[in-house]
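Reopening this one. Same input as before:
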Amino acid sequence: MRINVLTIFPDYLEGPLGLSIPGRAREAGLVDYRLIDVREYTTDRHRTTDDEPFGGGGGMVMKPEPFDAALTALDRPGRVISLSPRGRPFDHETAVRFALESDLTLLCGRYKGIDERVVDAWVDEEISIGDYVLSGGEPAALVVIDAVVRLLPGALGDHDSASSDSFYEGRLSAPSYTRPAEHGSRSVPDVLRSGDHPRIERWRAAQADAATRRRRPDLLDLDAAD
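Same output, byte for byte:
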């Protein structure tokens, strides 16, 4: 898989993408990250990427020309995603869908966003990671990349690890425990030390269902709607 990221701060992403699962996936040849500095596609000596909004008002808007030029230069843009607070909420289902793409391009806006003409001409989807505003799309890009890359076959090295995660089957995950069995006055539930795997699976399913009903009943409402 190739993931292109258009940004004015490529250094913001380079470090995190070399760590943990995203880094190991790149080393294993499962994914190729291309961090594209939009400033390289400006034509003035100040490398200007933003200007005042038409119609007045506060803030700045990212200019269309550098994004157009950067996107045109890509040989494999694939599905183009704009990271924006006005986008559709990012969720597990979307991560799965993106993981099936061979090429994915993420646009990191700043200020008041990217000129709408770029969105109209290039963008397949606008995605938001939450109902709040960030200083730029770079943190959102890292969230999307991490969620997508860990779903690539071989990225985790253990399918069971992903299949027991929250949202994998529309529920939150069951509680997790590790050694020591006794920690202060608290003990690991006996069932997890029983060696009875069918019983353990039933316990985990019941715990996942209870956690979902208590913390995210909206997920169960979605199931009922389906």
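So the earlier flakiness isn't reproducible anymore. For the record, DSSP finds nine helices and nine strands in the chain.
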